[in-house]
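User: We ran a pulldown and think these components assemble together. Before we commit to crystallization trials, I'd like a predicted model of the whole complex to look at. Sequences follow.
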Amino acid sequence: MAAYFFQRLLQMIPTLFGVILLVFLLFNWVGGDPAYVLAGKFSNPEDIANIRRQLGLDQPLYIQFGIFLRQVLTFDYGLSWSTQEPVSHIFLTRLGPSIALLLPMLILETLIGIAIALAVAYVRDSWIDRALTLTTTAAMSISLLIYIIVGQYFFAFVLGWFPVQGWANHGQSWVRYAVLPILLGLAVSIAPAIRLYRTFILEEMGQDYVRTARAKGLSEMRVMLVHVLRNASIPIITNVLSSLPGLLIGAFLLERFFSIPGIGREVIMAVERSDFPVIKAITVSVAMATMVFNLLADLAYQWVDPRVKLS
Amino acid sequence: MSERIVSFAKARQAGPKSLASIAWARLCRNPLGLCSLGVVVVFLITILASALGLIAQDWDTQYAVSFAPPCWMGAKLEAIPDEVISVTSQPRSGMLDPIEMYGLKDPLQPVLDQLKDNPLQNASRGAPLLILERSPTLFLGADKWGRSVALKVIKGAETSVLVGIASALLATVIGTLLGAFAGYLGSWVDAFIEWLYGVFTAIPYLLLVFAIAAVLQQKGVFTIILILGLTGWTGVYRLIRAEYLKHKVREYVQAAQAIGASDARRMFVHILPNVSHVILVQLSQQVVNFIKAEVILSFLGFGVPVDVVSWGSILNETPNELILGYSWQLMTCGLAMAILVTAFAMFTDALRDALDPRLKS
Amino acid sequence: MGLCLCAGVRAEALDPPANRVLRIASSTAETTLDPVGIQDLYSAKLASVLFEGVLTYDYLARPAKLVPLLAERMPDITDGGKTWIIHLKKNIRFAPDPAFKGKDRTVQASDLAFTLYRLLDPALHSPFSFLLEGKLLGLDELAKRARESKQPFDYKAKIPGIEVIDEWTLRLRLNAPDANFGHALAQPNLGVIAPEVVAFYGEQIGSHPVGTGPYFVKRWVRGSAMTLDRNPHYRPRPWDFDAGKDPASVKVVEEMRGKMIPAIPRIEIKIIPEAQSAWLAFRRGETDLIDLPSKLSPVALSHGKLNPDLVKQGIQHEIAVEPEIIGNYLNLQDPMVGGMDPAHIALRRAILMSSDDEAMIRVIRKGQAVRLSYPVPPGVLGHDAKYKSMLPYDPVAANALLDGYGFKRAADGFRRQPDGSPLVVRYWRTNEGESRDMEELAKRGIDQLHIRFEGHAVPFPDLLKAERSCQVMMRQFAWIADYPDGDDFMQLFYGPNIHANNVFCFQDAEWDRLYQESVALGPGEKRDQLYQKMARMVEMYGVMKISHARLHHELLQAKVMGFHISTIASVAEWPYLDLR
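Assistant: Here's a predicted model for the assembly, 1252 residues in total across the polymer chains.
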């Protein structure tokens, strides 16, 4: 397994290089020119040229690329062009709220998803099963945008059960602020989770060992909760692990409507302002996190089930 | 139990059947699947009619007053609309201050004088599409410009579904081709495509969208299809590659090789039909995903241009309307989209069940 | 490293009670709090309460009146307007900060000199360097030297334009008399800053604002929330303004007379980007003020007045016209619609006449704008209310004009140029806000002219760049006053400003001559006459049609006292308020 681990690490390097190259080409080459925004209302071409010089944009592309590589390796991306805030500081402060929002959502989604999927698998093919499939599919068909708009309007404004927007990093206030966004995020993500976990569980239930267990006289409940769940948890966990980095950016809708100072919202603002240091830093970091989490998921897979051979 | 014996016997009598007919037969036995298929077909017929210009041609016409409610709700009790306040004097047409007052000479004066003498004849006066009598209510209500919500939703369906289908086709074709090459040819081709896949999946989806949009410059329906297609192939690729890896070593492929079939022939004539059920299901799944993704793209500003309407552009008008108390556009469009997407998704499930080779009797 | 972005010594004072905290929301996040680097309105507002400049605007006086702030009295202007002598108040202390190493620090004339130097430092590339560019003797040369030699700006160099006479007196020498120089001194970008603070924080100066203003930053969660506390070193000023004739001002004066500035000990600010969230927060009492966005106005207002249920809750309502101009323009250098030949002048005028401004105001702005046709808005010196536009909304006349100049319709129904070549109007916009609706409206208008229309939505930085290189054919343009004088608006059309502010790429020798004359004249009746002629020429040549200025509706909870919408958007009203 150690060999596999190192081999995968080695494979990550060309991928990371590819990501850096792609990000660099796309944003430096075709991305918007930040100089005009930074130059302000009364700028003249001399001011523009000055800014581009200050930001290092007048250097040839290969020099800029070299600088970018160095930044990646030292984790030091400098300052944001629009706010002068150190990029590393942006990271440290925005990561917290994003994780505080997504981690509970992910945990709840997994636990509730598994519970419901198990229950449904227990009564598979009954009308409950079909009704639930229909409901989850219908729930999935509604865009997150609509959930947020309607949810915020009804639960926060009309009914007054939650604050309309805002964020606190810890303590009791955090609970107040986090509940509604988490609930709305769950509403969207739980449906596909249930469907997916149901598939995993049903696949497990079709295996020989389940028939054997039943033949040995174990109750259905025991079969499901002890044997099936343990085996189905492998694909479930790997699915959860590998989806975490993608959620970070995807949560931007929630962050935007609820004014949560997270990474997703930050990256969108950076793109709108052509703030390269921030864009590059976040893209490369999320890419690395994705690769690391995928690796962890595969390792977990093999560790839990030694029968699985990773080539 | 007896049903299976009977159908088995029937099958033996009838001779070997194609996968398609078996699948169809299975589908027919799934009431929910048939129902969803029916709903999808109804939508497709409506969309076809819209595309051919038979209905919803005039979706852009301002038939009603701004935010006219649906018929059954009764007209808004609003009095005369507010007068627009001017802080500088606005002239009534034709009563302009003479330019000499400012000590200037108008370069257009000769022609203007001419036009004053000859009252305007000509055909190009052309009646603008102004409906002078604006209706106070419409079937399903109106948007801020007074356009019919019903017509917009139908026309929007045409755009959204066509975008969904086109981009799903694009993504599936790309994913299948890459998966076939990677899975079948192996070695450095596989390594390269795997690397490409790694890079594409590592970059956050949103940023990929922004980047591609920036490269493509042009805005339009075509750009949306490209964005969705170029970012959505990864799932298909993974599956097809696995399938090709599996099939590459099967006997029938080796037999084909023995009789001298080229690599290309083996890939696309022999193996492809056997993985077509996977492709079909993925295609169907992606249509659903992309119809939903178009809504988010519209929110980010990568939606359809102004002279085209899609479900995404409609839904992005709704936050502002809801806060004002106008919910009909949200309800109609939301409901239409929910019904179509649900039906399509249920149909995809039924399709997957029908095509599942493990259930072959 | 400054993970905790708190400026100033953590005060030992207790937190003020909840009813003595002003809660505000902003729809955009702050960028930087280094005065020199600020260009967005929200950061400017913050700077206006954290820093102080030599002059400021009287809170209530309309039209705007400059009054001394850090200066003891208005500057002595001699030498035909070319020499300004500024006398600073003595004993104004900066807010406490570790950079001062525990000592009290009073503002000196050398600090003001440093502040002025800093604005033109090329390394800081200030977006508001225009405030001093070309104004002070020797300053531009210093900046040029730094730029060309690639050496750091020499803050120690002495120049004739800025001379420190003694600890509290500064003499400025201008290149030419400038009636508007006082306005430059009142901008938040010239808030006085201390050299040792800049040296202490280096690159992070934008995160550590240390000024002499009534508030300092107590707590700062970037892009999300901020807490401002009363500056313990601030010498409170008495709230003492004249009401004039405006009845709303009379009420304000009655409420606030005898109080001190600032009356409220703490301000808490939240960033709420979505308009609906901001409105819901206000209705729930989570914020005390809201600048009502026009798209939400039907919720709160009917026929321009507050809804009865809001009135019953004691919600207060202030209206003002924003000192801005908004309208569609056409690029005079564009290959398809540009040019000064009569045919293309006619084309441009016809295009501008196809824009239905009343519909724009009614439907898109929800009625919350006023129709304007003069390039200088109300409230700004040089505005003319009697001016009548020569480009009314008249698609019929526009079509006749096009026919008269040979823009014939081809087989596909669309018009061609007189020489038969294709004719397309390309309308540029960004992706934000109501710009999509504006494009729809523009399209409807141009469809009535039977001209082919293409929309072009691009990200804001790209739009700016294209505009500055004269590549944008048509777009809706907005300009809000930086200072309350008409010159801020007229300079937009000045020929030499092409590739800078003159996005219309308009250049006419006669117009430029009139502009130069107007600058020399300064505000007054003679300049007003010149402005009328210049405004007429802008319309006559089909450059831009001003359509509206938005209404600023400020809604306040019942407990807020003393509010009067400030003249210039970059100056915050917060220090002048109190809570019941």
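Chain A touches chain B through 47 residues (CB under 8 Å). That may be worth checking against your pulldown data before setting up trials.

User: Thanks, that helps.
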